[in-house]
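ok so for the tutorial part 2 we go from a plain amino acid sequence to predicted structure tokens. step 1 is just haveing the sequence, like this:
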Amino acid sequence: MLYSLTSTQTMESSDNIHPEALTSLADGVKKACSIVAPTMGPAGTNIVLQSKLNPGHLLTNDGATIIQSIQLADPIESIGLGFIKEAVERSNNNSGDGSTTTCVLLNAILQEGLRSGVSTLEVKKSLDECLPLIEQSIDEQTRQITVDDIPAVAEIAGESKELANTLGEIYKVIGKDGIIHLEGSGTFDTSYSLIEGVRFGGTGYLSPYLVHDEEATKAGRKETKAVYHNPSILVTKRKIAHLNDINPLLSALQAQNKKDLVIFTNDMDSGVASVLIEAHKSKLLNILIIKAPVLWGNYVFEDFAKITGSTIVEDASGITFKNLQLDHLGSCGTIIVDKEETTVIGIKDISDHIAELQAENTNDSKLRLSWLTTKTAILKLGAKSETELSYLRLKAEDAIHSSRLALKGGVVAGGGMCLLYAAHRMPATVGGTILREVLGQPYKQIIRNMGLERATWGDEIVDAALVVKNAIRNALGIASTILTATSCITLPPEKELPAKQFPF
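step 2 — the prediction. this is what the tokens look like for a chain of 504 residues:
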């Protein structure tokens, strides 16, 4: 059965009347925003969630988590909800923070766009032309910081002075390029420790269907990364051309009840990849396929094998798929992979390997040393209950992401002030008129939540500039596109297919 909702008047007959489909899409966005917006700022409220991800309960004010849990009955409004979920997910993936700001901005752009009474294509073009001006204003307001400034950034994002001071201590030890991994301490106290770890850029998962994070699922959060503890690791330069190449290995792992397998490769047949992804989705095996980078590929293969204790399947090692054994596989304490980078924690002793690279003293060896000598900290969160731990984890993640981006791209005035300043730079165009009203909405929402009519923040209230940029980019990009819609079609949910059978 096919559902459709279209305008009763075409855009040719009246540019000033928006179609019902667009209004319904905007209503879906507005309803979602009305739930998330009250959580914004220091006086923001918390929301109790119960969802398919978490049938128990979760107390949070994390915009990304809340948005992903919302469902709407109306099919057209649900599509609008899908758009705002996409925008929030982009902001969360790009910066790990700014999700609520993204919601508020996207909704405001849609509502002001609908009120403009101008052809939607013209509105989109005009809005898009304003984005460089906003980014230029943000750049002009940005100031660079050092690790000494981290507590100020972390306290705003994490809503905890204790957490902010702890992160400040950690960054003084690990530096701006260091890695921080979160765990529960199992006690009431928060602490941290230093361990061995390496982060590789340009080495993300092959498919988003391979995300796997049991802790996120238990806490009711959407899985966005692949997180494995003590996995088996296969590193291969040889192409995996047929499933038969690794069938014996998969069978051997199953015989030993080892379900977690990480495959590090840059050459795998698409048919093999599809079968392995389906096996992962069916829970038969927890398989993670990491795309080895093209740039610095040979070096990354060697270094990845060193830190995990793997023997590379290649001509030089004499290891082929025919003689591949379980003892050729590597392992690590924890591996965390998103779409752009891989973090390996609890690595093998690579002191000899580092000494060799230091002795080489070439540009290539210096680059490799930069990623092999990254300092890593485990931040262990203390809490009195699982509910509190879930809440603190989300706030700590926001604080860590904001701190990292602040060190990378600087900070701007917080509390919505940065975008409020940018509003004054908007031209007297259709898009500029809309954005002069829109860019002040985060500030207005924060003071509304505080029960105030006006507020001035001191210099200590700051946001990471990249978080603000990502929020306006994603909100404006998606909202301006929605404004071009004149019709909307939905399909009934797909029937569940029978479980697939696999040859291993």
